[in-house]
Amino acid sequence: MQIADKTRVDIKTMEVNYKNTKYTFQLGMGQGLTKGVAIIGGISIVLYIISQANREALYPLFGFIPSYAISKLRIWQFITANFMHGNLTHLIFNMFGLYMFGCPVEKKVGQMEFIKYFLICGIGGYGLAFILWFIGLIPNHLIVGASAGIYGLLLAFSLLYPNQKILLFFVIPMQAKWLAVIFGGLEFLLMFMNDGISHIGHLGGLFAGLCYFVYMKKIRFEKGIVNDKI
Question: Which CATH class name applies to 33-226?
Fold first, then answer.
């Protein structure tokens, strides 16, 4: 897969004045929906609609329950849980993150590599949750959602667009290269908090994404630009 030195992404811009400095920001809205993002988002939406018909049966079957994944040979849960969501709000936020980070990443790496990378990060998130359950650090509860894959995309966005100006939480101007550091640090601090969010899964997605880039060993940075192959 080739990463071009000067990849053009059609994204709308806006200007913000902050401490007497003018910043130009690229906005995710308007950049155009890519095929890989549409496939992943479409599957997630369809499965959410179908799952509401019989939550009691379908969530334990396609969501991720650590003790079921191995002992009941439900290996598919490492994949299918990435497309299941607990409620409509959960689905909307994850689809928004998928669109914001997924479309620019897919335009850099291509459709098939994008889908593969998303699944690697998603499986990595659930894999880490399984390991920590196995050694007794987290309870055996149902986990669903695309967040691990999306955190992996956040890492990829930080690496592929390191100097891109963004508004963190729609307020704080910063460069994209700090995104993974900030969100990774937050998830590390919250990883064992019992708040209904799988922070462990988020960390697993980030770690899996990092392992992917390290394994490829063909990315080097010069002045914040990725200019080699992966």
Answer: mainly alpha
